[in-house]
C-alpha cells in the first residue's frame, strides 16, 4: 500500500496540549448522549491550537488517546515507590493526569450513587 497514509504516533507535546484542553473542557463529564459531541468539539479546538501540531484529529481519536493516557497513568501509579526515598519532580503531564483521573473517579462514584438512588426509588414505587 504505497498510497496509504502512515499512522503517526502522538508526541509528548501533543499529549500535553490535549491534556490541557481536556482539563479545560472536561468532555468526560457530559451527560450521556452528549459525550461524543463534546469530544468532537475538543478535537476541533485542538486542530486550531498552535501548540497542537496535527492538522487533523477526530473526537474519537482524542477520546481513545485520553483513555490510553489514563490507563498508562493508573498503571504507573500502581508501581511501588522508588527505594531511594527521593521524590521525583512531577511533570505538568503527570499533574494534569492526576487531576483528571481524580475527576474521572469522582464522576464515576457520583454516577453510580445516582443510579443506585434511582433504582431504590423505583423499587419503592
UniProtKB/TrEMBL annotation:
Domain of life assignment: Eukaryota
Name of the protein in its database record: Myb/SANT-like domain-containing protein
